[in-house]
Predict the 3D structure of the following.
Amino acid sequence: MLDLSPLARFGDRLATGLLDVTSDPAALDSRGFWAVCADFEGGLTCARFAEVHERPVPAPVPGAWRGPAVTDWTTSLDQAAYMTGVRRIRAHIAAGEVYQANLCRVLTAPVPPGADVDALTALLARGNPAPYAGTIRLPGHGVEVATASPELFLRRDGRVVDSGPIKGTGRTEADLLEKDFAENVMIVDLVRNDLGRVCGTGSVTVPDLCAVEKHPGLVHLVSTVRGELRDGAGWPELLAAAFPPGSVTGAPKSSALRIIADLETAPRGPYCGGVGWVDADRGTGELAVGIRTFWIDRAAGQLRFGTGAGITWGSDPEAEWRETELKASRLLAVASGTYETYEGGGPGPSPAKQTR
């Protein structure tokens, strides 16, 4: 019989023995080890576990994961609709309403009733290893998420907080454009402002700006923003100030969120939210931005995945569409079980069969 008992994995850390679940962020400053999943729309699930062990992600078991074929995926925005959205964002930029906005689409495919997100995790760990990979399996609470995120949302060590926004993506470093560097600096300023709302005056710094990081199949521009929480500020204040992540919203954040709500046709859910862990006993924690992320909608019998791109005045609609394809193709191949075929067979599958 398939075991879908609650668990959480982060790197080589496995948490089991679910104790309690809450939506109150103040719990993260209490005690115990917590798995955290925050939806882009604001829903928060914090699950405390009794046991935490050092356990590497196991090797994939043949037949344990039966994922959808790469041709089974549908998209909330097809190419024409996505490119129209890019043009509309450029019009908002021309009108002075926003400087940058992230435009995303949600891909959906059927999965069997017994699909286990932890079995998908084993495939992702081999096919698309990521520094902030994580899994939370809470089927009784509507959370079944596996992320291969390369992006740090928030890391906390005592009073020190780091954020690692990514802006700028290409197959190689040579693909990165002047637009990518400008976009990264823009989002760094936004994250500095977010952290400045809860950090001590003068404590917010940028130790790294526009560093090039290599990840499976692509490269990113990554910066680091650091600050020291002011007295009295904890996880509730930090999340209120920084959420949703600036790299997947836009600048100014309030204007970008309004534009996103107008253009996108499906909720993002844990995609572009936050996925990670908090050790309240040690005062440490690490939340990833929920990109390169799969989640199961158990009621609908569907697997979902999000992909998107940051749009600026310098954006070309077709190039931005291709960026969303680049970000998705490798992950969808891994989830389908055809990663080896994709790896040796050129540009990979297109995840844009039709509009939902």
